[in-house]
Design goal:
single chain, about 280 residues, alpha/beta, 8-stranded mixed β-sheet, 6 helices, globular
Length: about 280
């Protein structure tokens, strides 16, 4: 199996009881430094909440484009003042990535986990999703690519020295990019969401390329994965338009538990007919 095929795409299963490989515990994240990009709402905020509540010593760096109005993060800051740092990071403003990296370096000197949790599904103020070729335009394509593909990779680039400092043979650092199975070639979910699907597929390819580069340079202390959180209720998607929703609390718990598995073992596929849709290699 080549290095690119080790890029794993994981999501939440339909049958919860069959996944004994998952544990609600995330002990290996105890005392670590985790960063969640896109942490103001949704599953990003839930990642921050669980990382703080389920460990006693770990520190979390939460980033979003406008922290002053991120009420959920501000509430957590009041509760975990010594363990939560909030920074402004805008995926299209690369100087904010550099500023955040500098702040993390000065305070902690390393990162053990980086979660890129934000992705653009539709264009604000209009809900544009270009589901047909005749409404695709250059501006929307570039916007989706800049936010969904270029932005997360630039965050990874900016944080890479910190991840190298945090990742060792005995303590793996993990980069987890949140995406969707619909973005994989051959998938049938959400067909014809041209800008969204193609931008996310680009993120998969870039993540796989980074993983291959790290392996070729013998950087064995960092693993890169792509995670599918399942169909959860998020802003901009009507519940009536999706077949099933998972609670964001459950999805975040399962994915953090899987990240814990990644830290201790080789990436591997899960062979099950019932789970095939959610567990496979990109």
């Amino acid at each position: 199996m080549n290095s690119l095929m080790k890029l794993k795409f994981v999501g939440c299963p339909k049958s919860f009881s069959r996944l004994r490989m998952f544990s609600s515990e995330i002990k290996r994240l105890e005392g670590s430094v985790s960063m969640v990009q896109g942490a103001s709402t949704g599953i990003g905020l839930e990642f921050v909440k669980q990382l703080l509540e389920k460990t006693k010593e770990g520190h979390v760096v939460a980033t979003c484009s406008n922290p002053s109005v991120a009420t959920g993060l501000l509430e957590l800051k009041n509760k975990f003042a010594d363990r939560l740092d909030i920074h402004r990071l805008h995926l299209t403003n690369y100087s904010t990535i550099e500023e955040t990296a500098k702040a993390v370096e000065d305070k902690y000197g390393c990162l053990n986990l980086l979660i890129n949790a934000f992705s653009l599904i539709s264009i604000p103020r209009g809900g544009h999703t270009d589901k047909a070729l005749d409404i695709i335009n250059k501006a929307s394509l570039l916007r989706f690519y800049e936010v969904n593909a270029i932005g997360p990779i630039m965050v990874l680039k900016g944080m890479l020295p910190l991840l190298k400092a945090g990742g060792t043979d005995s303590e793996i650092a993990v980069v987890a990019n949140i995406s969707h199975t619909a973005a994989s070639i051959g998938a049938t979910d959400l067909r014809c969401w041209h800008s969204y699907q193609s931008s996310q597929d680009t993120l998969h390819q870039l993540t796989g390329g980074v993983l291959m580069e790290l392996q070729q340079s013998k950087e064995d202390g960092i693993k890169c994965i792509v995670l599918h959180p399942g169909v959860i209720h998020i802003a901009g998607v009507s519940p009536a338009r999706v077949r099933r929703h998972l609670p964001k609390e459950y999805s975040a718990r399962m994915l953090l538990s899987y990240i814990n598995e990644v830290k201790t073992s080789e990436l591997r596929p899960v062979y099950s007919d019932n789970l095939r849709r959610y567990f496979y290699f990109v």
